[in-house]
Design brief:
Elements (H helix, E strand, L loop, with lengths): L3 E5 L5 H13 L2 E6 L2 H11 L7 E3 L6 H14 L6 H7 L3 H10 L5 E4 L5 H12 L9 E8 L2 E6 L9 H17 L5 E5 L10 H15 L5 E6 L1 H5 L1 H7 L11 E3 L3 H15 L2 E8 L5 E3 L6 H33 L1
Parallel strand pairs: 1-2, 1-4, 2-3, 4-11, 6-9, 7-8, 7-9
Antiparallel strand pairs: 5-6, 5-10
Length: 330
């Protein structure tokens, strides 16, 4: 099996180049820079970056046969909503071309957003890659890291006011992300109430989420509804949730709304000194991740590694499903 190919959508960005060089030197991931080859090489020379051995995907060098394959696939995926003319027009835009490069298998994962908005990065993925068969929506999580402490926060960037059904899906997606990252998930369904101490519409929603999850055959522990202090502090947990097996040690935090999640992760990053890596996009058929426009080359590198982990997990799942189908036939 060859190296995992990760496409960097803004290949002319110096931060993308630096991350690509780092990954190429390591040899575990094959970075591919997207953009005008002459422009990328000129910028690399100006910035003193050595791109020897790193592939550049220049759309002007892609064969008409492959471009037509992209057009036909887009028409199929959009179920007649776009005609050939519209699809060709879309492919003139880097975010659509790179998305289709992933969709037809030219690369294994896609990373963008260093110079574009989240909407511009993810809209093509939502329209063309779409959600995987087990998901009803696309969500995100942030990996929060400080020294040896590691947490996952979700959802902090996509879903504004998710329903109980959607929060169950978001939780399961975030647990999958935890497993991909080698984190043993202990999940807290966050609220301003702990196990019935408070009342309100949001409390009812989060209590229902926890109740539904606990009814499932899960291979991870979940607690909720729970306040964040009881989730993180053993002392507080002993007072507020004395019978809980994971309160005080929770490492996957599920927020009730985008307001709470976005504010929460930024407070922890700014005041708590945690590094926020993400958003890691969850629930798509193929790995696509979004960067912040203020990202550093190190953050690009880390997100590329995470994207590669998602690819590996997806390949393993597909392999296991193929074996299952083969066993069934036998």
């Amino acid at each position: 099996m060859g190296k995992t190919r990760i496409l960097f959508a803004e290949g002319n960005d110096e931060r993308m180049m630096e991350a690509a060089v780092h990954l190429h030197e390591e040899g575990f991931v094959e970075p591919v820079l997207f953009g005008d080859c002459n422009q990328i090489m000129a910028i690399a020379k100006q910035k003193g970056k050595q791109l020897e051995g790193i592939e550049i995907m220049d759309p002007s060098n892609i064969s008409n046969e492959i471009k037509e394959q992209m057009v036909m696939e887009m028409i199929h995926l959009r179920k007649g909503k776009w005609d050939q003319s519209m699809c060709r027009e879309k492919l003139e835009h880097a975010n659509y071309f790179t998305t289709m490069a992933l969709q037809i298998g030219l690369v294994d994962g896609l990373l963008g957003g260093s110079t574009t908005t989240t909407a511009d990065t993810l809209r093509p993925a939502l329209q063309l890659i779409k959600t995987n068969p087990t998901s009803s929506l696309v969500s995100s999580c942030f990996l929060m890291v400080k020294d040896e402490k590691v947490f996952l926060f979700s959802d902090c960037s996509l879903n504004i006011n998710p329903s109980a059904d959607e929060l169950v899906d978001i939780t399961l997606q975030t647990v999958e992300s935890a497993n991909q990252l080698g984190i043993v998930p202990k999940v807290g369904i966050l609220s301003y109430s702990t196990l019935g101490s408070g009342k309100g519409e949001s409390v009812d929603k989060m209590r229902e989420v926890a109740k539904r999850l606990k009814r499932m055959m899960l291979d991870f522990e979940v607690e909720g509804e729970i306040q964040v202090d009881a989730a993180l502090s053993k002392e507080t947990a002993a007072l507020k949730a004395p019978n809980s097996t994971i309160a005080g040690n929770i490492n996957v935090l599920i927020f009730p709304s985008l307001d709470a999640g976005n504010i929460g992760y930024k407070l922890v990053a700014r005041l708590g000194g945690y590094e926020a890596i993400g958003p890691i996009v969850q629930g798509l058929n193929k790995p696509v991740n979004d960067l912040s426009r203020g990202c550093t080359s190190e953050e690009v590198y880390k997100m590329a590694r995470i994207t590669a982990m998602q690819v590996s997990e997806r390949k393993q799942q597909n392999s296991e499903e193929s074996l299952d189908r083969l066993s069934t036939r036998v």
